[in-house]
C-alpha cells in the first residue's frame, strides 16, 4: 500500500488539488450568483488589496508626468485651440437657446402625460486603476469604493456614454462590469425607431442588441440609448450606434453596436451614486390650457347671482369656506358659492388671456368687490385639490398674499369651469 | 532537435529565493492587470501568469511544487476577475504539473525547446479552461483555432524572452 502511495504520490496530490478546486467551483455555481462574486468577496479582497496599491501608484505617476508635460511644456497650438473653443461656445449658445425651447416643450408634454423622469442627481468621479487581465472577464477596477459612497449596481458612465455597472465594492476600490462582458445586460432603445431590446456582450468583447424581432427595420448608424428598464441606468443615456444588422437566430435580429464610450481606453469614469425621480413640471407662467383659451373665445352666459340675505356680499367673500363667483360680478359684488367642485387653481374656472398682469393683493383689499379682488379671494382660500391638480397648483392655492392675474376675459359658466378641471392635464 | 531526453541525475534542479518566488508571480499578475488599460490587445493574446507558471514548474522539476505553483497563481488570477474562482486555478494546476513532469524527463533549457513547450502548454491551458468554463460553470465560450494558435505563438515568443530574464534568478540546489 505504501509503495503504491509513494509511486503515485504526485498523481494523487494532483487529483486532490483538482478535486478541491472543482468542489469549490461547484459550491459557487450551486449558490447561483457565481458570476457576481458575492460569496467569494473576502478572498477577492486579498488579491485586489495586494495589487491595487501598486496600480494606484503607477496611475498617479503616469498622470502626474502627463500633466506636467501637457500643462507646462507641451503648449503648442493652445492659442489656436482656444480660439476654436470660443467659436464653439458661441455656436453652442445659439444651439442652447433652441434646445431650451425644445426642453420646455418636452416638459409641458410630459407634464400633460404625468411622466416621471429620472435625473442624475449626483456622480462621483473615479480613476480606472486596473482590469481583470483576461479577455474572458471584462471588468475594470476604479479607485473609489464604499468610503466614497459607492454601492453595488450603481451605473458607471463617461461623458460619451455608459460604461457598465458596479459589481463588487471594496473599502477603497470597486469592481465594474463592462457592458461588453457576456454576463452583462442593459435595457436599450433605438432612438428613431423606438424599438427596445437588451444589450449584451459576447465572448469576443463585442456588444450586441438582442431581442429585436427580425421583421423590424433597423438601420446602421442609428443611435442606441438606455431605456431605463433595467433600473440601473436612467433613461436616455447614450450607449452607442448600430454598426451592423444581420438576421440572427430564433426570429431575432443580430445587431452589433459600437459603444459610444471607448471601453478599451477608459481612464476616468463617473459613478452615478444618486438618482432622482420626479414628476416633470412645466414652467408656471406657461400653464395656459387649451381648454381655457377655448373657453375664453366661446360666448358665455354669466351665472345668475345667488343673493344671501343674511350676509353682506363683501363679508361673505372674505369668509373662509365660501367661494366667490368665477371671474367676479360685473357690479363689483362678490358672490358666495359652495366650494364643491371648485377648481384648486387660482386661475381655474376663468379664461386666461395673454398678456396677464400680476398684482399682489392684501387681505384688506379682498373686500373691495372688484373682479381683481374676487380673483384674489379665490387664490387666497385654500381648497382641497380636486381632479388632476398638480403640486404646483396646490402651492398656488396656499393662503397668504395672492398673485392675481388681471383678466379682461368674460365670465365663464361654472359648469364649463368644472368640466375643465376634470379634463386631463 | 533542441529537446533532449535526459536522466533525472543529468537535469539540473533549481530553486528560487523567497522574494523571487512571491514577487515574480505578483509582478506578472500586476502587469497582466494593468497593461490592458493602455493596450487592450495585451489581455487577448498574452498570459503572463501562465508563462511564469511554466517557468517555475520547469525549473523546479518537482510535479508537486509545480502543481501548487500553478494552483496558487491561477487562483490569484481568478480573484481578479468576476468569474467563479477556480477556472484558471484548475487550468494552471494542470499546466504546472505537466510542465514540471516534462522538466523532469526533458532538458528544456534552450530557446527552441522552450518555444515549443510554451506553445503546447498554452493550448493545453486554453483547452482545460474552455472545458471547465463550459462544462462546470456553463459559461458561453467559443473555441477558435486561429486565435488559439496565434495567441500561443505570441506567448511562446514572449515566454522565450521572459525565461532568459528569469534565468538570472535561478539558484542551484
Major sheet size, sense and barrel closure of chain A: 6 strands, antiparallel, barrel
The ordered H/E elements of chain B are EEHHHHHEHHE
Q: Evaluate the radius of gyration of chain A.
A: 33 Å
Gross geometry of chain B: globular
Poorly predicted sequence stretches spanning 5 or more consecutive residues of chain A: 313-425
| Order of the strands making up the biggest sheet of chain A | 1-2-5-4-3-12
Mean pLDDT level of chain B: 87
Which key features would you list for this structure?
heterodimer, A: 425 residues, alpha+beta, Thrombin, subunit H, 2 domains, 6-stranded antiparallel beta barrel, 9 helices, extended, disordered C terminus, B: 173 residues, mainly alpha, two-stranded antiparallel sheet, two-stranded antiparallel ribbon, 4 strands, globular
Structure description:
The complex is a heterodimer of chains A (425) and B (173). Chain A has 425 residues and is α+β, with helices and mostly antiparallel strands. Chain A has two domains: 163 residues, Rod shape-determining protein MreC, domain 1 (Thrombin, subunit H, Beta Barrel), CATH 2.40.10; 139 residues, no CATH class. In chain A, the strands form four sheets. Chain A has a six-stranded antiparallel beta barrel with strand order 1-2-5-4-3-12. Chain A has a six-stranded antiparallel β-barrel with strand order 6-7-8-11-10-9. The C terminus of chain A is likely disordered. Chain B is mainly alpha-helical. Chain B has one domain. Helices cover 71% and strands 5% of the residues of chain B. Chain B contains seven helices and four strands, in the order E-E-H-H-H-H-H-E-H-H-E. Chain B is globular, with a radius of gyration of 15 Å.
Topology:
The complex is a heterodimer of chains A (425) and B (173).
Chain A: H1 2-7, H2 9-30, H3 41-73, H4 78-113, E1 116-131, E2 139-142, E3 155-157, E4 162-169, E5 174-178, E6 186-190, E7 196-201, E8 207-210, E9 223-226, E10 238-247, E11 253-259, E12 268-279, H5 290-297, H6 313-318, E13 323-324, E14 336-337, E15 357-361, H7 371-380, H8 391-396, E16 402-406, H9 414-422
Antiparallel strand pairs in A: 1-2, 1-12, 2-5, 3-4, 3-12, 4-5, 6-7, 6-9, 7-8, 8-11, 9-10, 10-11, 13-14, 15-16
Chain B: E1 4-5, E2 14-15, H1 18-38, H2 41-45, H3 48-60, H4 63-80, H5 87-105, E3 106-107, H6 111-135, H7 145-166, E4 171-172
Antiparallel strand pairs in B: 1-3, 2-4
Helix pairs in contact in B: 1-3, 1-4, 3-4, 3-5, 3-7, 4-5, 5-6, 6-7
Amino acid at each position: 500500500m505504501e509503495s503504491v502511495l509513494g509511486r503515485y504520490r504526485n498523481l494523487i496530490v494532483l487529483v486532490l488539488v483538482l478535486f478541491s478546486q472543482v468542489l469549490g467551483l461547484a459550491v459557487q455555481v450551486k449558490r447561483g450568483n457565481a458570476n457576481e462574486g458575492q460569496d467569494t468577496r473576502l478572498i477577492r479582497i486579498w488579491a485586489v488589496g495586494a495589487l491595487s496599491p501598486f496600480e494606484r501608484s503607477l496611475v498617479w505617476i503616469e498622470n502626474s508626468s502627463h500633466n506636467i508635460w501637457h500643462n507646462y511644456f507641451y503648449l503648442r497650438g493652445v492659442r489656436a485651440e482656444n480660439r476654436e473653443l470660443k467659436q464653439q461656445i458661441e455656436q453652442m449658445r445659439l444651439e442652447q437657446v433652441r434646445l431650451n425651447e425644445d426642453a420646455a416643450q418636452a416638459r409641458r408634454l410630459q407634464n400633460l402625460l404625468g411622466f416621471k423622469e429620472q435625473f442624475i442627481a449626483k456622480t462621483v468621479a473615479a480613476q480606472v486603476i486596473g482590469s481583470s487581465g483576461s479577455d474572458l472577464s471584462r471588468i475594470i477596477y476604479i479607485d473609489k469604493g464604499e468610503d466614497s459612497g459607492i454601492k453595488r449596481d450603481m451605473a458607471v458612465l463617461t461623458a460619451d456614454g455608459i460604461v457598465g455597472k458596479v459589481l463588487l465594492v471594496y473599502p477603497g476600490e470597486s469592481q465594474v462590469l463592462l457592458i461588453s462582458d457576456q454576463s452583462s445586460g442593459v435595457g436599450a432603445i433605438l432612438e428613431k425607431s423606438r424599438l427596445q431590446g437588451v444589450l449584451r456582450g459576447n465572448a469576443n468583447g463585442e456588444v450586441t442588441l438582442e431581442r429585436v424581432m427580425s421583421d423590424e427595420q433597423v438601420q446602421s448608424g442609428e443611435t442606441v440609448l438606455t431605456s431605463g428598464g433595467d433600473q440601473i441606468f436612467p433613461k436616455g443615456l447614450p450607449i452607442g450606434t448600430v454598426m451592423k444588422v444581420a438576421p440572427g437566430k430564433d426570429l431575432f435580429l443580430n445587431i452589433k453596436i459600437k459603444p459610444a464610450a471607448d471601453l478599451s481606453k477608459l481612464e476616468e469614469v463617473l459613478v452615478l451614486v444618486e438618482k432622482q425621480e420626479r414628476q416633470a413640471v412645466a414652467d408656471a407662467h406657461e400653464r395656459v390650457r387649451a381648454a381655457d383659451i377655448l373657453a375664453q373665445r366661446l360666448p358665455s352666459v354669466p351665472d345668475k347671482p345667488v343673493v344671501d340675505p343674511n350676509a353682506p356680499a363683501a363679508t361673505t367673500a372674505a369668509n373662509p369656506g365660501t367661494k366667490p363667483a368665477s371671474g367676479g360680478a360685473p357690479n363689483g359684488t362678490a358672490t358666495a358659492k359652495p366650494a364643491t367642485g371648485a377648481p384648486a387653481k387660482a386661475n381655474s374656472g376663468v379664461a386666461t388671456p395673454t398678456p396677464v398682469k400680476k398684482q399682489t393683493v392684501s387681505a384688506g383689499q379682498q373686500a373691495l368687490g372688484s373682479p381683481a379682488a374676487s380673483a384674489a379671494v379665490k387664490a387666497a382660500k385654500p381648497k382641497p385639490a380636486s381632479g388632476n391638480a398638480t403640486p404646483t397648483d396646490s402651492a398656488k392655492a396656499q393662503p397668504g398674499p395672492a398673485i392675481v392675474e388681471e383678466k379682461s376675459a368674460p365670465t365663464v359658466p361654472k359648469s364649463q369651469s368644472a368640466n375643465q378641471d376634470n379634463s386631463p392635464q | 532537435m533542441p529537446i533532449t531526453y535526459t536522466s533525472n541525475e543529468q537535469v539540473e534542479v533549481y530553486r528560487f529565493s523567497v522574494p523571487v518566488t512571491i514577487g515574480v508571480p505578483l509582478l506578472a499578475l500586476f502587469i497582466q492587470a494593468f497593461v490592458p488599460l493602455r493596450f487592450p490587445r495585451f489581455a487577448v493574446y498574452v498570459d503572463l501568469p501562465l508563462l511564469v507558471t511554466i517557468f517555475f514548474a520547469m525549473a523546479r522539476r518537482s510535479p508537486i511544487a509545480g502543481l501548487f505553483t500553478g494552483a496558487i497563481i491561477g487562483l490569484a488570477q481568478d480573484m481578479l476577475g468576476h468569474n467563479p474562482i477556480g477556472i484558471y486555478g484548475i487550468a494552471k494546476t494542470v499546466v504546472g504539473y505537466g510542465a514540471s513532469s516534462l522538466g523532469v524527463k526533458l532538458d528544456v533549457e534552450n530557446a527552441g525547446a522552450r518555444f515549443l513547450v510554451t506553445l503546447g502548454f498554452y493550448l493545453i491551458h486554453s483547452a482545460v479552461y474552455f472545458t471547465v468554463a463550459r462544462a462546470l460553470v456553463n459559461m458561453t465560450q467559443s473555441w477558435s483555432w486561429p486565435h488559439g494558435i496565434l495567441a500561443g505563438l505570441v506567448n511562446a515568443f514572449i515566454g522565450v524572452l521572459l525565461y532568459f530574464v528569469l534565468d538570472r534568478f535561478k539558484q542551484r540546489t
